[in-house]
Specification:
Shape: globular
Strand content: 5-15%
Helix content: 25-40%
Number of strands: 13
Oligomer: single chain
Number of helices: 20
Strand order of the largest sheet: 9-8-7-10-11-12
Length: 552
């Protein structure tokens, strides 16, 4: 006898198997989600005072989904954590050899036929913002290395730029001396070499030859590359149309696509070319008061603002820097520098319980730095720049600069708006060069840290607010910068990048439009259209502008 299942029973069995299948699928999915969640949590360090420098600890922005489309400032800076001591020492040797061969000591003694063939690069600056003006001098020094020419530092009415406060290397020339030697060696009469200056202005994109001309072939005795107010201008040579020019530039600046190993070029140049005057040095020693050099320097560019979040973020960044090198038994020394005096008063109490705080109190200093004494001089001429430079007399800035650059372990840049100004860049670069270990002990030494402190208000739209080529994070300001970041304390490159070759670099629209004026077509990700650049350069002629030294 055959038994027939009823329709109701068959329906019940179907429901049972269907329900069983659904439960099995859900179980697999839940197991997978738990494993993914636990893996992600394990990768993120806890937020706290002991969080390692440069590690990101914000789950909302740091999730795997978001990391594929944008990065935080700390993530962008992680590649700079290892430093580039080996490359910086290589560049130091290049600079030293260059000034042995092309320095004033040797070139002055050349026989007339050789001297009259010698080439020069002129670096000329005014006495506006120190960071911008110093980059003009250092860019000229860099160009002299790239082109194998001697360095001239221009004077105005017989005075060097900032000559009351800084001294320049004796391996440079003045224009007056070159003119004298040109006449002494009769370069015009015997060798037919007239003393002309060929000028090129980076701030005039339609006229500059920075990308299209082979500067090594220029025959004029003196080259003056104007308008290099930051680290970017001279690095345009890295994209020059001519392979020989690109190679010569990359020997000094490193490959633009390998940012993590690029040398501290401007720090090494500044170490060789510039030093504080004796009066400034005396003021620095007065602050140090026979004690050890500071461990960390903090520069806060606040422009007469004092947001609490910026101050708190900077203090947290100081603690992270100290955590990277400090023994618990040591009481560190920290230098505070700011254009806004009230910021010093705000931050100092946050540090005194664990550190010794140093700050140049110029009102208590009795030394003589400015031309007419401490309370005299030309500070009244800069009142119109008080919001930009601060209310202190101008000479105080030089003491602050060389005091902050004495830091042994780290320089931190914080700001009300834009972090990593040219001033802060050069403080960090000089400090890193001064602490660069020698050949034998480089492997055992710790890397010098340049850190950027961002408070969350600056990162609502990512790094989009970091406009201006003089700011170190400008090349990261595009859409690859995550929005809504928390406070960040990020490793920062000592050599600010000029292009957008790195994984997380992306341009803002303003810079894409500006590059078009130079003949460069950038993609949204920052890649250069080499074909269009070649066509642009082929279609234009070199702009040649010269000045006779005898009319200068």
């Amino acid at each position: 006898m055959r038994y027939h299942r009823s329709p109701r029973r068959r329906f019940t069995l179907r429901r049972f198997f269907l329900l069983f299948g659904v439960l099995a699928v859900c179980s697999v999915l839940l197991t997978a989600l738990r494993s993914i969640g636990s893996l992600d949590t394990a990768q993120l360090p806890p937020v706290g005072e002991d969080e390692p420098v440069g590690r990101f600890a914000e789950p909302t922005v740091g999730s795997p989904l978001v990391r594929s489309t944008c990065a935080t400032v700390e993530q962008m800076g992680e590649q700079f954590a290892a430093g580039s001591s080996k490359e910086s020492l290589r560049v130091r040797r290049i600079i030293e050899r260059h000034f042995v061969m092309n320095g004033a000591t040797r070139v002055r003694e050349l026989p007339p036929d050789q001297f009259c063939r010698q080439g020069f690069v002129l670096g000329k600056a005014s006495e506006a913002g120190f960071g911008n003006e110093m980059y003009k001098i250092l860019s000229a020094a860099a160009l002299s290395v790239v082109l194998n020419r001697s360095l001239i530092i221009g004077q105005t009415r017989g005075k060097y730029p900032f000559g009351d406060y800084i001294s320049y290397t004796n391996q440079s020339f003045t224009l007056k001396e070159v003119k004298h030697l040109w006449n002494l060696n009769d370069c015009v009469g015997k060798h037919g070499k007239h003393l002309f200056i060929r000028t090129d202005d980076f701030e005039k994109p339609a006229q500059t030859n920075i990308l299209c001309s082979d500067w090594r072939r220029w025959k004029q005795p003196i080259i003056w590359f104007k308008g290099t107010t930051d680290a970017v201008g001279i690095q345009f040579l890295l994209k020059n149309l001519h392979p020989g020019m690109r190679k010569a530039a990359s020997i000094l600046f490193g490959h633009p696509r390998i940012l993590k190993s690029r040398p501290n070029v401007f720090g090494e140049l500044m170490r060789f070319v510039v030093s504080p005057s004796q009066a400034v040095q005396d003021a620095v020693e007065w602050v140090l008061n026979n004690g050890p050099v500071p461990d960390v320097s903090l520069h806060m560019r606040m422009m007469m603002n004092r947001p609490v979040r910026a101050e708190q973020a900077a203090v947290h960044c100081i603690k992270k820097a100290l955590h990277a090198f400090q023994q618990n038994s040591v009481r560190p020394r920290i230098v505070l520098v700011s254009d806004t005096p009230s910021v010093i008063d705000d931050i100092k109490p946050m540090l005194t319980n664990f550190a010794e705080v140093l700050h140049f109190d110029y009102k208590s200093y009795r030394g003589n730095i400015s031309g007419d004494g401490v309370n005299g001089g030309a500070e009244h001429n800069t009142e119109f720049r008080a919001k930009d430079w601060g209310p202190a007399p101008r000479w105080v800035m030089f003491v602050d600069f060389f005091l902050a650059s004495r830091a042994k372990h780290a320089v931190i840049s914080g700001a009300h708006r834009r972090v990593g100004t040219t001033y802060a860049q050069l403080v960090a670069a000089l400090a890193a060069a001064a602490n660069e270990p020698g050949e034998q002990d480089s492997a055992a030494s710790r890397n010098f840290l340049f850190l950027s402190s961002f408070h969350s208000n600056l990162l609502v739209e990512g790094l989009r607010s970091q406009i201006g080529w003089g700011h170190v994070w400008n090349r990261y300001a595009g859409p690859l910068s995550c929005r809504g970041q928390s406070n960040q304390c990020a490793y920062t490159p000592l050599l600010p990048p000029a292009w957008w070759d790195d994984e997380w670099q992306s341009p803002i629209g303003r810079d894409i439009r500006r590059l078009r004026e130079y003949g460069v077509q950038l993609t949204d990700s920052g890649d250069v259209n080499e074909t269009l650049l070649h066509s642009f350069c082929v279609s234009r002629k070199d702009t040649v502008k010269t000045i006779s030294v005898y009319r200068h």
